[in-house]
Amino acid sequence: MKTSKKLVFLRFSSLGDVAITIPLIRCFLSKYPDISITFVTKNFYVPLLQEFKNLEILELDSKGRHKGLKGLLNLYSEIKELNPIGIVDLHGSLRTNILRFLFFFSSIRYKKIYKGRIEKKLLTRKSNKVLVPLIHVTHRYGEVLRKIGFPVDLSDHEYPLKFILPKKFNNSFFNSKLKWIGIAPFAKHVGKIYPLDLTQKVISFLQKENQVFLLGSDGDEEKKLQVWEKAYSNVHSLAGKYSFSDQLKIISNLDIMVSMDSANGHIATNYDIPVITIWGVTHPYAGFSPWNQTNERSILSDRSLYPLIPTSVYGNICPKGYENCMRTIPPEKIIETVRKTMSQTSS
């Protein structure tokens, strides 16, 4: 039976930010089964949310019917027609602020995320940094639900069962009894990418006794991953070969994920996969580390040599001379952390 009460969640982008909503949605739908969710986001992100039966997607068509101010008016009308009991704004962007203004004149409750911009500015400024851990974005999302009247306790979170790989995954490496290690070596900004020559050393060592699955986007990243795939017998690139939905199934069956400060770390942690993250000009203190992971799994660049870290929250600011900050992380440290983590989680 379809529920009559509905909340609308807004989180348009990016992939990692949408992935971070997953634990919150699990807890919400478990606690409030009589309330459904309509999630407004881009079509590409839909596979992240397919596990939820009581959740519908309102696709954000930012290049079509939702483009510009007229498009926002269309989106406002579409949301209003759903007759929701509230709007949960997890984005806090210019576009959602305009929506918030429009809904001000309706009877529909609207609550938005507090991003903590002042604290983040203190954390990332060049001088007199206030280097303290900020609230994790998952809890910032949870605070929006509390303000709109539906608090959840993230300690009640339960992970779903791992995906059963379809029969089409019949390649020999999928049937291997070796441990599966996912490595996602890329990020949106260069200041968050571990040097590829050092990444190759990590891959070369780990693939000797494990199956290594490489994750990246189509195009240039795909071509770079193919080089490593051809060079090593136990290395397999997923880029360009498997849909995003299929990649999620593979990720859910990994034994461990090695990721930059990027979306793949957030995706893997949603499936209870141990995630090791490698940090360049960004820092876990900003509140964007993979949720529910131990601090020991975050490998940081040397701040004694690069004291401006974190230079920004998202890694889009890389001061001159900071391009090589991640070279202060030796490949051996990553390998050691992988082996230690695998030992701890398999015991």
Features:
six-stranded parallel beta sheet, 15% strand, 33% helix, Rossmann fold, globular, single chain, five-stranded parallel beta sheet, alpha/beta
Structural notes for this entry:
The chain has 347 residues and is an alpha/beta fold. The chain folds into two domains: 146 residues, Rossmann fold (3-Layer(aba) Sandwich); 168 residues, Rossmann fold. Helix content is 33%, strand content 15%. The chain has eleven helices and eleven strands. The strands form two sheets. The protein has a six-stranded parallel β-sheet, with helices on both faces. A five-stranded parallel β-sheet has the order 3-2-1-4-5, sandwiched between helices. Helix 10 links the parallel strand 9 and strand 10. It is globular, with a radius of gyration of 21 Å. The model has no long low-confidence stretch (mean pLDDT 95).
What fraction of the residues are assigned to beta strands by DSSP?
15-25%
Distance between the termini: 43 Å
Largest sheet: 6 strands, parallel
Indicate the structural class: alpha/beta
CATH fold-level topology of the largest domain: Rossmann fold
Number of domains: 2
Q: In summary, what is this structure?
A:
The chain has 347 residues and is an alpha/beta fold. It has helices at residues 15-20, 22-31, 68-81, 94-103, 117-124, 137-148, 196-206, 220-231, 244-251, 263-269, 331-346, and strands at residues 5-10, 35-41, 55-59, 86-89, 109-112, 179-184, 210-214, 235-237, 256-260, 275-279, 298-300.
